[in-house]
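Researcher: Please translate sequence to structure tokens.
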Amino acid sequence: MLVEIFTDGSARGNPNGPGGYGCVLHYRDGRGKIHERELSQGYVKTTNNRMELMAAIAGLEALKRPCEVRLYSDSKYLVDAFNQNWLDSWIKKGWKRSKNEPVQNVDLWKRLLKAKKVHQVTFFWIKGHDGHTMNERCNFLATDAADRCGLIEDTSGQFWDGSLDS
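Model: Translation complete:
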């Protein structure tokens, strides 16, 4: 089953202030019907890269069974970290980019690697703020969640147990 995850971690455009993150999951069920789920979480006081990473993790961890996943992000750093095998070299160096520079957010990178082992994940970069429909929707989700300081929720108003079966 193919699942596409679109993330956005740049809520409110303030990397060091209150923000949120969101992701949209698109998937096709066994009967060929396309479904969509929106997940968002609010008030994360951190950097944009960390929020984007958390959005990717939220999307992958929401999947209850192994899937083929295409993950779209406007964080070139996040996409390059996986596509250019930066994480492999960081692990070999003991999670340090250089002799004295530890990798930030190691716990989150490890969670993403764990989720990536469960799913067949391909990362794609979407240039941010270019009017891409899914990027705009994810940004709306993140900003809305940040404003409400809410927890992860299904913003469609329907109950979802996390399974991809309809």
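Researcher: Any highlights?
Model: Helices lie at 48-61, 76-83, 86-92, 106-118, 133-148.
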